[in-house]
Protein 1
Amino acid sequence: MREFATSPAPQPAGPVRAGYDATRDRVETYFDKTATQTWERLTSDAPVSKIRETVRQGRDQMRALMLNRLPVDLSGQRVLDAGCGTGQMATELAARGAEVLGVDVSPQLIDIAELRLPEEYRKQVRFAAGDMLSAAHGHFDHVIAMDSLIYYDAHDIGAALKSLENRTRGTIVFTIAPRTRLLMAMWYAGKLFPRSDRSPIMVPHAHQPLAQAARAHGVSGLIRPVERITSGFYISQAMEVRS
């Protein structure tokens, strides 16, 4: 198992951190001001359009896939749900016995997560609005970051993985937008919309350049692809960092 660093890694300064902060702020604005109701419905049993149903199904498959990368019994282990949204992953982690901290940049989504959390897990799960990379959250046995890093470039993801690795004993499971023809077409098409109308644009990545960026930031664990989920408009690649 990976040993903890003796102190948290320093936050990147200058343009690197500024880039991360700017993207995080755009994500917060989108989910907290524009898309709260959409995500509240998408992550519930409420009827949605056929397109959104494919996204819902894809997210359900990805959540199950990521959970399967962790031990079935998580009793006594502390897990960070980084970018927890409305709390679906946090609830399933708690069902495995984990002590869970769910962090999301959107206070609105955190409010929904709090309301939806089953009473039986309230002693195991805590939610917090803010930066999922904050060293103030402490140390963890495992980290899951489902679709919360997909808006960042390789440099920022590498820095994020290093920050998390310094405070994680076991596995970090995360997702990226894979560099496929469809996603690249969507990426370029998104740039055609007026800036005020855009949702945060996913940044597609290939495995090797992303791994190189992470190693440049000092990530020591093995970074490898796990499996890709494709369900209609949902295309996401699961990755993991293991010591």
Protein 2
Amino acid sequence: MSITINLTPELEARLQEKATQQGQDISLVVSELLARVLDWETADTAEAVKAIQQGLDDFENGRFRSFDEFAEAQRRKYNLPATE
């Protein structure tokens, strides 16, 4: 399949440089980069959904803390001043 996209001159130059460094055709480099990004996005979305579900399950089962407890833990962890 053939897709036409418009690139900025800077991005095209970066892609061409990468292709030259790898000794590959620019089309192959772009295709591989897009495949990696799409794979990463799919995995990232799945991880986010899993984490959100875990948080909802924890809340339903009473495993949570108040905002004040959370804020205090963050202040201690990052050595932040107490708010008044």
Protein 3
Amino acid sequence: MADTPPRSDSELEPVRTTLFSKEPSGKTYRIPALIHLRHCHTFLAFAEKRTSSSDTDATLFVVRRGTQEEDGSIQWSSCQELSAASLPGHRTMNPCPVYEEQSKTLFLFFICILGKVTEQHQILTGRNRARLCYISSGDGGQNWSQVTDLTKSAIGATIREWATFAVGPGHGIQMQSGRLIIPAYAYYKPCCCWFVPIPGTVQPYAFSVYSDDLGHTWQIGEMLQKLSCECQMAEIIDQEGRSRLYCNARHTEYRREALSEDSGVNFDKPHNDRKLVEAKKSSGCQGSVVGFSAPNWALNSGGDTEASASSLLSPDMRTWLLFAHPTSKHSRIDLGVYLNRSALTSQGWEKPWIVHRGPSGYSDLAYDKDKDQFSCLMECGIKSETEEIAFMSFTLYDIMQAASQHQEKTC
């Protein structure tokens, strides 16, 4: 990798804590998922434990618990295996946690795939070998229920149209209405010949899995109208209080975005966002998005000097977005966070702040509204993005300071 020029102190990356590291034996930890439990001031960091970096060598989930101390530090527990999140003869993949506030129930969604059957084999044969599952916890992840297989009740006969499917990976959300949202995608089979898909016709489309009864029952929404793969979703609220569900999905050259007016049942026609590039060498990469309340100074700024300094300020939006993803259009390097203060426009994304220079992969964002602080769990390393999964935290001020410095340099 080419040398990068020295940076000033103001450009330094956030301090990161390594939570999972590749072992000398070859055991690798991949596919991070992060959730912040506000009621108990706790982070849960999930990952897949694999015997190698290959998808077919995934085994089960591991988790570390981060307790927030009064001084702002986080004390992390040792690594624990989640044996409850499994089905006999299957490997466990794609952690996707979501918290239901009324019942104080934490759901951990995932897929279980038969043996070592690859995604590509399922796509070529049209024979799905994935199951939709979850476990739940009523005590903030201290103890977990037995596994629930939702494949039949939530997907039903529709699964005959899919070669395979997955959730997330990364976090789900609960909307203001109480609806729980799990992001998902499936490889749809448009046509078959003697029950075998016609080569090249099986393609991925994103959709939501949702519940309106505190997670007792779940159903699936309609697929996006254009090709879209691994995705995450966020609720955005305008100044009049109207809610929309935003979907940000992996594609080939640029990220795909879509909005839903009915909370994830249907989405409008997706579009490519040319400010959010994908790495061509790896056919893109998973990314993470969170929505958060716009700061009061922005919503009530009027002629405020600080607010008017931004040409992209959108006072008609109560929700801003933050997106994490590798910033190179060539390969998975230089993980950046992008701020969007105008989520309903196609030009809302600002230049990214690079929070890790070097190999970077999958990531997951969380937002602590009490501390007004963001956290990111990310794959990263020096020579490869599969070397470790690390945790870091930063504030909106940090992001905006980085943007201001970038603007000064380009003027």
Protein 4
Amino acid sequence: MKKILLLVLTMLFLCACDAQQTDLNVPNKPSAVPDKAFWVGGLDGGVFVLIAKNKNLEPDEYFAKIYYASGDIAYKGRMTLSPRGSTAIDHINPAIFQGWDGDTLYIEGNKQLKVQN
């Protein structure tokens, strides 16, 4: 009986943990930030991101404009997808982007877009 009670309590605890939702506050987009830019961030902040791909870029290169929440530009220029040889990313899908650390955009699947120096 004690084992069943312990199991039930454990299940309730785990369900309660899963039920928690985080309210990520996406700031209003400043007028300096293009409409197509999307928010990449979390509880500690974030940036607005606009990624482009065109025929003038290498297969693993993308052009990025990254804006602070204030609308100021954090980065503008080419970025390289790593690890090398990775399949192309869906650069217009905000759901794949996980964060920005100042020189790297982190992407699901252990991929990254890195600032070219």
